[in-house]
């Protein structure tokens, strides 16, 4: 894991800048559990989850549906409350992290407001935070540049392709410069060609912005290609069964997927998924 | 090309013909239905009015048909008789005259619009209250729905008489009846509209730690706009019904309702039908205007393609 250049020196824990020292802990979950009471009985969405995410990391949660990967992300975002264990986000409770607007959240669907054009969609959080108009526009333009959507400011969501809509939603999540970017299968609904392209762009964006990214996916190649750390999860109960360091070089291109190192990591992820899931259904 | 077109402008095929284009849109079907209705109407007028024709001498079939369509007080007036009556009372009578249908329509329209304004406002406020205070949905919604199960024809005279007894007459009682009829579709539509944003958008606002008022103005209100216009179209038509019903029980001197009532007292069927047509035209115009406003607003919001 080579996260040090991405660390913010002003809030670091004192590790020497530039060295391969681990970043500050941003997300720290201990024995986290979450149960839902449903008509069919108690569902253990998360069970005994321990997780550490450090500053500047790109961490992917991977697993079959029902393994709690989205639930875990929603607990981090304070969209769900854990029923047991403890979790801190940037040293505070998730609820406080949310009110401090420490994270930007990218949903599975772009979730753009159809009555706002691209620019107005990206400025939405800034309006809510009460930022003045000039700064709003400046922030929005900068982030639209970052996702290669400059020139599309006046377009409405329905005039954009699915990939462009999701890029606009990423620009919106980044618009207020949060420390943490939480992404819930953002490219799940896109075709593979667009997905590859956006994966490359996302890596570039991650390198440029030095954000800590937590990324939910069910695609093994996507997880290995993007991540510095892969968290393999398993359903019934939702739990972590393996955490794999993905120490591929930082400047990855799509070709890296043919290398032996990439395939070895992908293999380990697949083994983990297989071990945690009996495929009896 | 331009020369060709100038020489033989008609012979050059230009996509589908006029008829095909008319039927691709709404014009063709509407015209067809109207034509069918006219045929049925004339046939029914002849059939219903035939017993009313009095004659000393036996009539030929053609004479009988002519006579059935020219009665002064037919059972069912023919469309052209209604049109002549409309022309007479709308175009040929000065607006200031008591016989002018325009004046009567204006009386009804003014109470319709007053009632609509208050009813829509009341409906909106109720919807906002219900969406914000969940307990109100349980307590208020029952009464709101119940209020609409009471036949307005029974309530209207009570309102008119009670308000008349305390000296409130004219426009206000009628507007109250209109408002009573038209707040409900607005409340029902707007409760649905204000709660229409999907889970994703509500979660999104939550990630921004948006205040309830920010969520309301930036998410719920814009999302409810299509619902608003749909309910306003229903409400304005209901409001007109309310105004007309409000003109019936007291035998009001003016308004389309008064014309309907007077017409039925004196067997002036043509007058009744003319008033009916005026009311229908009024309703269609108002719904059309709300629809045009809807189109404009949705285009401004960028949601209409």
User: Pair with the most extensive interface?
Assistant: A-B, 24 and 21 residues
Known CATH architecture of the largest domain in chain B: Orthogonal Bundle
Q: From the alpha-carbon coordinates, what is the Rg of chain A to the nearest angstrom?
A: 19 Å
The total of beta strands of chain B comes to 0
Residue ranges of chain A: pLDDT <50 for 5 or more in a row?
1-21
Counting DSSP E segments of at least 2 residues, the number of strands of chain A comes to 9
Secondary-structure arrangement, i.e. CATH architecture of the largest domain in chain A:
3-Layer(aba) Sandwich
Distance between the terminal alpha carbons of chain B, to the nearest Å? 33 Å
**Uncertain regions of chain B: pLDDT < 50 for 5+ in a row?**
1-9
| The first-level CATH class name of the largest domain in chain A | Alpha Beta
Overall pLDDT metric of chain B: 87
Number of domains of chain A: 2
Structure characterization notes:
The complex is a heterodimer of chains A (281) and B (305). In chain A, the strands form two sheets. In chain A, strands 5-6-7-3-8-9 form a six-stranded mixed β-sheet, with helices on both faces. Chain A has a three-stranded antiparallel β-sheet with strand order 2-1-4, with helices on one face. Chain A folds into two domains: 23-102 and 178-281, P-loop containing nucleotide triphosphate hydrolases (Rossmann fold); 112-177, no CATH class. Chain A has helices at residues 69-76, 94-99, 118-128, 133-146, 162-174, 192-209, 220-226, 260-276, and strands at residues 25-38, 41-54, 58-62, 84-89, 103-106, 180-184, 212-217, 229-234, 239-245. Chain A starts with 24 loop residues before the first strand and ends in a 5-residue tail after the last helix. By secondary structure, chain A is an alpha/beta fold. Chain B folds into two domains: 2-76, no CATH class; 101-301, Orthogonal Bundle (MetI-like fold). In chain B, helix 6 (101-132) packs antiparallel against helix 11, helix 8 (152-165) packs across helix 9 (171-194) and helix 9 packs antiparallel against helix 11. The interface between A and B is medium-sized, with 24 and 21 residues. Chain A: Residues 1-20 are annotated as: Disordered. Chain A: GO terms for molecular function: ATP binding; ATP hydrolysis activity. Chain A: Pfam families: ABC_tran (PF00005).
